[in-house]
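Fold this: Methyltransferase type 11 domain-containing protein
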Amino acid sequence: MPFSSRNGKDFTVEVVETLYRQCGERLAILDLGAGSGTYPRLFAQSALVRARCEWWGVEVWEPYVDRFGLRALYDTLLVADIRDHAGALAPLPQRHFDLAIVGDVLEHIEVAEATALFRWLAGFCAHLLLSIPIKHYPQGEVDGNPYERHVVDDWSHARVLAWLDGEVRSAGAPCWSCADCRCYRDVGVYVLANARAARAALSSSASA
């Protein structure tokens, strides 16, 4: 669905506000799989107001753009598939992003495609926040949107950690390290720091 579980969102706000305090300047945030615009809406309600962030969004399903008013939520919105690294998304690596948010996305693509995505993001993103269902969660098309189908519906906390340490590292992206993670009843939130591209070291928000 284009909406996201509330679980883990308070932790997400803590992480981004910690990153902002450490960077001390406007954050460039790339939201992959915008859906209903969950993340810019979330931060609009926090102390981290929109004026402190430059929001870039990527959404594959064009009907969501008008349905959820996405162009009003993002400074730049790309209607594109997050796997189209050589096509519509080719200009993105020319920029630097302080944070890439991959929220409720990986379950919609093949594991090999997720691995390629993380390898690609390692080239121009300093931090990555992954939010993903960590339980058996089958889902088909929603309101005619084929991209809502869950291709991999059995992610777990152990599988996420093994994938990060295994396939992602072996694919040439060993720079990603898990700085913090939180597991909730149905959602895992993972904060990854990029040793190669980071402008600021992100410590655990719990100790901030």
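Residues 100 and 121 are 8 Å apart (CA to CA). The longest strand covers residues 176-183.
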